[in-house]
Amino acid sequence: MKNIIKGSVLLMLLVFGACNTDYLTPEPRTSLGELQAFDTKDRIVGQVNGMYAMMKHGQFLGGRYFVYNDIRGDNFLPKSTNLVTGYATWNHNTLSSTNEVRDLWGNAYAAVNAINIFLEGLDSRWTSGALSGIITEAEYNQYKSEALSLRAVTYFSLLQLYAQPYNKNNGASPGLPLRLKAMKTGADNDLARSSVAEVYTQILADLNAAEGMAAANHGSDLLNTTRIHKNTIIAYKTRVYLHMNNFAQVQTEANKIVSAGAPFSAPAGVANALAPTFAGVWAAPYTSVESMFSMPFTATNLAGTQNFLAHYHHPNSAESYYINTAGSAYTKLNDEDARKKLFATGTVSGVGTVYFVGKYTNFTSPVDYAPVIRYAEVLLNLAEAIVRGGNSVTQRAVDLLNAVRTRSYAAGAYTLADFSSVASFQQAVMDERNMEFLGEGIRNMDLLRTVSAIPGKGSAVALEPSSPNYIWPIPESELNINKLMTGN
Q1: Rounded to an integer, what distance in angstroms lies between the CA atom of residue 333 and that of residue 325?
Q2: How does pLDDT run across 104-113, given as a tens digit for each residue?
Q3: By the 8 A CB rule, do 447 and 154 touch?
Q4: pLDDT in tens, 278-295
Q5: Residue 50 has pLDDT above 60, yes or no
Q6: Which residues of 73-102 are buried (b: 16+ CB within 10 A; e: fewer)?
Q7: How many whole angstroms separate alpha carbon 5 and alpha carbon 3?
Q8: What CA–CA distance (Å, rounded) separates 476 from 488?
Q9: What local confidence, expressed as pLDDT, does residue 414 receive?
């Protein structure tokens, strides 16, 4: 828990920044005491900035979280065996002392603590009337909704690497220490793990509360991409419910932001929809209506050395991961598919010409945004939920699948007659997700939520769901400090 205590100190250094228009690039001025932290609207907004800044740390949602979830699967091969850049994760031999196991946990829980500090301070002062004349009720609601949503995203993200999937046993497995109060000293280090089901319950409680308070629209493409709004929360709930096989709730949530027919779009709030072209999602300024929540970067505000996505997916990087042409995503992609045409080429000694996803093009100045969730995922979540929940393939489900598929591969449209069973449709959806989200950290999550084996690749063996390496170990830094913590 050392990292959590450091997190509360780090919060004081980060959150009290200038009021920036994107709310995600704080400019730290100095450390302030808690009594002054809510004195002005600028200081409150500075704390909002700080929460986002901690979420987009390079060791978390600024880059590496997505990488680790990708390279655990079968779609990538490493240029390098450098343990600092994920090789142990690719090779499935992480230990409780491995860098990524320790660092991602520490940064994620530091973000949780920053959020909890903010929530407690905001609520206590709002209730006491101390914020009267400083912020409006709408602003209070929005800031709180962002904090609750970010906490939910953090706990969900941690579950995907450190806990067994919900669908393995309805969430009965050990989950995470569920920290919902600010830690300001080491006195609260000791906290037992809640079950996976209990953590999911809290995630949904946070998201449901946040939805009712969130802004419908922030008024600009930049803010609608980089700040939490109502549609962001709804989209994320479709992901959470899908991971619980709660297909009825996936449909309920998705139908709030997906129109009845094609072309599919959100009927209220931000006008979220698929971008006209796949390449357009990845082009500057990275703020298409498809990008429902992304972590932004600028030339003066980067994820850090060996953290940014281009470091792991660009031909010029000596430590990148190139596409495994025997992997499941590559073998399903047609040569005419825009997603395959986006691939960048490079060379690897002893291998020859290889391919990279091509989504992250800025290696020298790595300003590519990190995609947390896109509208394309909502459509595929809904398509899967309709079929698996109703146990039949419907035309609406096929239309949703085709919306994503034909955007990149017009000749690949499916008809209802193409699917002889629910299983055949489910496989088509899983294949589409694998191709669509290559390099976005979805693959490991999809394998685990369906309690599937993680396929082997190169020298790395396959992992069955019963394998002790199916999930990451709990970091030794936590085990050493938290006396009530148990390992995986």
Answers
A1: 10
A2: 999 999 999 9
A3: no
A4: 999 999 999 999 999 999
A5: yes
A6: bbbbbbbeeeeebbbbbbbbebebebbbbb
A7: 5
A8: 11
A9: 98
- Residues 413, 41 contacting (CB under 8 angstroms): no
What token pair was written down for 439? Answer: 């390099």
pLDDT at 394 > cutoff 50: yes
The verdict on pTM exceeding 0.90 is yes
Six token digits for residue 261: 């027919």
In angstroms, the CA 55 to CA 147 distance is: 11
Peptide bond between residue 263 and the one before it cis (omega within 30 degrees of 0): yes
